[in-house]
Specification:
Blueprint (H helix, E strand, L loop, with lengths): L2 E2 L14 H10 L4 E7 L20 H14 L5 E8 L6 H10 L4 E4 L20 H15 L4 E4 L11 H18 L3 E4 H5 L7 H10 L2 E5 L11 H13 L3 E2 L9
Parallel strand pairs: 1-2, 2-3, 3-4, 4-5, 6-7, 7-8
Protein backbone atom coordinates (compact mmCIF):
# COMPACT_ATOMS: atom_id res chain seq x y z
CA UNK A 1 0.00 0.00 0.00
CA UNK A 2 1.15 3.50 -0.79
CA UNK A 3 -2.10 5.16 0.32
CA UNK A 4 -4.66 4.63 3.06
CA UNK A 5 -7.70 6.91 3.28
CA UNK A 6 -9.50 5.07 6.12
CA UNK A 7 -8.06 6.12 9.49
CA UNK A 8 -9.90 6.92 12.72
CA UNK A 9 -9.15 8.93 15.86
CA UNK A 10 -10.30 8.61 19.50
CA UNK A 11 -13.00 11.22 18.89
CA UNK A 12 -15.34 8.51 17.64
CA UNK A 13 -15.23 6.83 21.04
CA UNK A 14 -13.93 3.45 19.87
CA UNK A 15 -10.43 4.20 18.56
CA UNK A 16 -7.16 4.92 20.34
CA UNK A 17 -3.93 6.77 19.62
CA UNK A 18 -2.94 10.24 18.47
CA UNK A 19 -2.78 11.52 14.93
CA UNK A 20 0.99 11.63 15.28
CA UNK A 21 1.12 7.91 16.12
CA UNK A 22 -0.93 7.00 13.05
CA UNK A 23 1.25 9.19 10.85
CA UNK A 24 4.48 7.74 12.21
CA UNK A 25 3.20 4.19 11.67
CA UNK A 26 2.22 5.05 8.11
CA UNK A 27 5.67 6.45 7.38
CA UNK A 28 7.27 3.35 8.89
CA UNK A 29 5.26 1.19 6.49
CA UNK A 30 6.16 3.22 3.42
CA UNK A 31 2.70 4.74 3.04
CA UNK A 32 2.99 7.95 1.03
CA UNK A 33 -0.60 9.22 1.39
CA UNK A 34 -2.61 9.05 4.62
CA UNK A 35 -6.20 10.21 4.98
CA UNK A 36 -7.96 10.66 8.30
CA UNK A 37 -11.63 9.72 8.07
CA UNK A 38 -13.19 9.60 11.52
CA UNK A 39 -16.90 8.85 11.89
CA UNK A 40 -18.91 11.85 10.75
CA UNK A 41 -20.48 14.23 13.31
CA UNK A 42 -24.11 14.19 12.25
CA UNK A 43 -26.37 16.71 14.03
CA UNK A 44 -29.40 14.61 14.93
CA UNK A 45 -32.55 16.48 16.00
CA UNK A 46 -33.88 13.54 17.99
CA UNK A 47 -32.66 11.75 21.15
CA UNK A 48 -30.30 8.80 20.93
CA UNK A 49 -27.06 9.87 19.29
CA UNK A 50 -25.25 6.58 19.84
CA UNK A 51 -22.32 7.74 21.99
CA UNK A 52 -19.17 5.80 21.23
CA UNK A 53 -20.08 5.46 17.55
CA UNK A 54 -19.13 8.86 16.05
CA UNK A 55 -17.50 12.13 16.93
CA UNK A 56 -19.77 14.83 18.31
CA UNK A 57 -20.29 17.99 16.22
CA UNK A 58 -18.46 20.03 18.84
CA UNK A 59 -15.32 17.98 18.15
CA UNK A 60 -15.12 18.84 14.46
CA UNK A 61 -13.13 22.12 14.79
CA UNK A 62 -10.48 20.41 16.93
CA UNK A 63 -10.37 17.48 14.50
CA UNK A 64 -9.61 19.90 11.67
CA UNK A 65 -7.20 22.10 13.61
CA UNK A 66 -5.17 19.13 14.82
CA UNK A 67 -5.01 17.74 11.31
CA UNK A 68 -3.80 20.98 9.73
CA UNK A 69 -1.12 21.32 12.40
CA UNK A 70 0.07 17.79 11.60
CA UNK A 71 0.02 18.45 7.86
CA UNK A 72 2.24 21.46 8.32
CA UNK A 73 4.60 19.57 10.60
CA UNK A 74 4.93 16.57 8.27
CA UNK A 75 5.11 18.49 4.99
CA UNK A 76 7.60 16.80 2.70
CA UNK A 77 7.46 13.54 4.66
CA UNK A 78 3.95 12.29 3.86
CA UNK A 79 0.88 13.59 2.02
CA UNK A 80 -2.03 14.04 4.42
CA UNK A 81 -5.75 14.53 3.73
CA UNK A 82 -8.71 15.33 5.97
CA UNK A 83 -11.91 13.38 5.52
CA UNK A 84 -14.73 11.58 7.30
CA UNK A 85 -16.40 8.21 7.04
CA UNK A 86 -20.11 8.96 6.78
CA UNK A 87 -23.34 7.10 6.34
CA UNK A 88 -25.79 8.54 3.86
CA UNK A 89 -28.67 9.86 5.96
CA UNK A 90 -30.97 11.87 3.65
CA UNK A 91 -32.60 13.90 6.42
CA UNK A 92 -29.32 15.24 7.79
CA UNK A 93 -26.94 15.00 4.85
CA UNK A 94 -26.96 18.59 3.62
CA UNK A 95 -26.29 20.02 7.08
CA UNK A 96 -23.41 17.57 7.55
CA UNK A 97 -21.86 18.65 4.27
CA UNK A 98 -22.18 22.31 5.29
CA UNK A 99 -20.36 21.61 8.58
CA UNK A 100 -17.61 19.67 6.86
CA UNK A 101 -17.01 22.35 4.26
CA UNK A 102 -16.91 25.07 6.92
CA UNK A 103 -14.10 23.20 8.67
CA UNK A 104 -11.99 22.42 5.61
CA UNK A 105 -12.79 18.71 5.35
CA UNK A 106 -11.73 17.50 1.92
CA UNK A 107 -13.45 14.17 1.28
CA UNK A 108 -15.95 11.58 2.45
CA UNK A 109 -16.03 7.81 2.25
CA UNK A 110 -19.40 6.07 2.49
CA UNK A 111 -19.70 3.50 5.28
CA UNK A 112 -23.38 2.64 5.75
CA UNK A 113 -23.54 1.26 9.31
CA UNK A 114 -27.27 1.91 9.86
CA UNK A 115 -30.46 2.00 7.83
CA UNK A 116 -32.60 5.08 7.31
CA UNK A 117 -31.43 8.07 9.34
CA UNK A 118 -29.94 5.91 12.13
CA UNK A 119 -32.11 6.90 15.09
CA UNK A 120 -34.39 4.00 15.93
CA UNK A 121 -33.05 1.94 13.03
CA UNK A 122 -31.14 -1.37 13.08
CA UNK A 123 -27.49 -1.62 12.22
CA UNK A 124 -26.40 -3.15 8.95
CA UNK A 125 -23.91 -5.58 10.52
CA UNK A 126 -26.61 -7.73 12.13
CA UNK A 127 -27.35 -10.99 10.32
CA UNK A 128 -30.49 -11.04 8.18
CA UNK A 129 -32.13 -13.46 5.76
CA UNK A 130 -34.69 -10.94 4.49
CA UNK A 131 -34.09 -9.83 0.89
CA UNK A 132 -35.93 -6.61 1.73
CA UNK A 133 -33.07 -5.66 4.09
CA UNK A 134 -30.53 -6.28 1.36
CA UNK A 135 -32.53 -4.22 -1.12
CA UNK A 136 -32.93 -1.40 1.39
CA UNK A 137 -29.20 -1.33 2.12
CA UNK A 138 -28.22 -1.40 -1.55
CA UNK A 139 -30.73 1.31 -2.45
CA UNK A 140 -29.48 3.61 0.31
CA UNK A 141 -25.83 3.11 -0.69
CA UNK A 142 -26.69 3.80 -4.33
CA UNK A 143 -28.56 6.97 -3.35
CA UNK A 144 -25.46 8.06 -1.43
CA UNK A 145 -23.20 7.32 -4.39
CA UNK A 146 -25.44 9.34 -6.65
CA UNK A 147 -24.79 12.52 -4.62
CA UNK A 148 -21.36 12.57 -6.26
CA UNK A 149 -19.74 13.50 -2.94
CA UNK A 150 -18.27 10.17 -1.82
CA UNK A 151 -14.76 9.18 -2.92
CA UNK A 152 -15.31 5.47 -2.36
CA UNK A 153 -17.50 2.91 -0.60
CA UNK A 154 -16.04 1.54 2.63
CA UNK A 155 -16.75 -2.15 3.35
CA UNK A 156 -19.51 -2.31 0.71
CA UNK A 157 -20.25 -5.88 1.79
CA UNK A 158 -20.95 -4.89 5.42
CA UNK A 159 -24.61 -5.95 5.27
CA UNK A 160 -24.60 -9.49 6.64
CA UNK A 161 -27.11 -11.15 4.33
CA UNK A 162 -27.44 -14.89 5.09
CA UNK A 163 -30.49 -15.67 2.99
CA UNK A 164 -30.69 -17.36 -0.40
CA UNK A 165 -27.44 -17.20 -2.35
CA UNK A 166 -29.33 -16.16 -5.48
CA UNK A 167 -30.74 -13.17 -3.60
CA UNK A 168 -27.25 -12.24 -2.37
CA UNK A 169 -25.93 -12.14 -5.92
CA UNK A 170 -28.96 -10.30 -7.26
CA UNK A 171 -28.91 -7.60 -4.60
CA UNK A 172 -25.21 -6.96 -4.38
CA UNK A 173 -24.77 -7.08 -8.16
CA UNK A 174 -27.03 -4.03 -8.36
CA UNK A 175 -24.63 -2.17 -6.03
CA UNK A 176 -21.57 -3.23 -8.02
CA UNK A 177 -23.09 -2.28 -11.37
CA UNK A 178 -24.05 1.20 -10.19
CA UNK A 179 -20.64 1.79 -8.56
CA UNK A 180 -18.97 0.86 -11.85
CA UNK A 181 -21.28 3.16 -13.82
CA UNK A 182 -20.47 6.05 -11.44
CA UNK A 183 -16.73 5.33 -11.35
CA UNK A 184 -16.70 4.89 -7.55
CA UNK A 185 -14.17 2.42 -6.11
CA UNK A 186 -15.10 -0.29 -3.62
CA UNK A 187 -12.96 -0.90 -0.54
CA UNK A 188 -11.50 -4.22 0.54
CA UNK A 189 -11.68 -3.57 4.26
CA UNK A 190 -8.59 -4.70 6.12
CA UNK A 191 -10.16 -4.34 9.59
CA UNK A 192 -12.76 -6.93 8.68
CA UNK A 193 -10.04 -9.17 7.31
CA UNK A 194 -7.69 -8.95 10.28
CA UNK A 195 -10.53 -9.34 12.84
CA UNK A 196 -12.21 -12.26 11.07
CA UNK A 197 -15.50 -10.46 10.48
CA UNK A 198 -18.12 -11.49 7.93
CA UNK A 199 -16.52 -9.11 5.45
CA UNK A 200 -14.68 -9.09 3.11
CA UNK A 201 -17.08 -11.68 1.71
CA UNK A 202 -15.77 -13.70 -1.23
CA UNK A 203 -19.24 -13.85 -2.80
CA UNK A 204 -19.28 -10.07 -3.01
CA UNK A 205 -15.80 -9.83 -4.50
CA UNK A 206 -16.63 -12.49 -7.07
CA UNK A 207 -19.41 -10.17 -8.26
CA UNK A 208 -17.04 -7.17 -8.25
CA UNK A 209 -14.58 -9.11 -10.39
CA UNK A 210 -17.29 -10.12 -12.84
CA UNK A 211 -18.56 -6.54 -13.09
CA UNK A 212 -15.10 -4.98 -13.50
CA UNK A 213 -15.28 -2.77 -10.42
CA UNK A 214 -12.35 -0.65 -9.33
CA UNK A 215 -11.19 -1.57 -5.83
CA UNK A 216 -8.89 -0.07 -3.22
CA UNK A 217 -7.49 -1.30 0.08
CA UNK A 218 -8.53 0.48 3.27
CA UNK A 219 -6.88 -0.11 6.64
CA UNK A 220 -9.90 1.11 8.66
CA UNK A 221 -7.37 1.75 11.40
CA UNK A 222 -8.66 2.26 14.93
CA UNK A 223 -5.21 1.78 16.47
CA UNK A 224 -1.92 3.19 15.15
CA UNK A 225 -0.50 -0.30 14.60
CA UNK A 226 -3.44 -1.14 12.31
CA UNK A 227 -2.42 1.53 9.81
CA UNK A 228 0.04 -0.88 8.25
CA UNK A 229 0.00 -4.63 8.79
CA UNK A 230 1.90 -6.46 6.03
CA UNK A 231 0.23 -9.84 6.62
CA UNK A 232 -3.26 -8.39 6.22
CA UNK A 233 -2.23 -6.52 3.10
CA UNK A 234 -0.91 -9.75 1.57
CA UNK A 235 -4.18 -11.52 2.35
CA UNK A 236 -6.10 -8.73 0.64
CA UNK A 237 -3.85 -8.93 -2.41
CA UNK A 238 -4.54 -12.65 -2.59
CA UNK A 239 -8.26 -11.80 -2.76
CA UNK A 240 -7.51 -9.34 -5.56
CA UNK A 241 -5.69 -12.04 -7.49
CA UNK A 242 -8.34 -14.69 -6.88
CA UNK A 243 -11.11 -12.63 -8.48
CA UNK A 244 -8.99 -10.62 -10.96
CA UNK A 245 -10.02 -7.34 -9.32
CA UNK A 246 -8.95 -3.99 -10.75
CA UNK A 247 -6.89 -2.61 -7.86
CA UNK A 248 -5.83 1.03 -7.67
CA UNK A 249 -3.20 2.26 -5.23
CA UNK A 250 -4.50 5.82 -4.71
CA UNK A 251 -7.62 7.91 -5.24
CA UNK A 252 -8.65 10.91 -7.24
CA UNK A 253 -10.47 12.47 -4.29
CA UNK A 254 -13.97 13.80 -4.90
CA UNK A 255 -13.78 17.12 -3.08
CA UNK A 256 -16.88 17.96 -1.11
Amino acid sequence: MIANYHTHTPRCGHAVGSEREYIERAIEGGIEILGFSDHAPYRFDRPGRYPGVRMEPEMLPDYAETFFAMRNEYAGKIELHLGVEAEYYPRYFSSLVDDLRANGVEYMILGQHFFGDEIGEPGTMAATTDPADLDRYVSQVIEGMETGLFSYIAHPDVLRFEGEVSEYYRGYRRLCVRARELGIPLEINLLGMRNGRHYPNERFWRIAGEEGNTVILGSDAHRPEDTWIPETELAALALVDKFSLHLIDKLELRRI
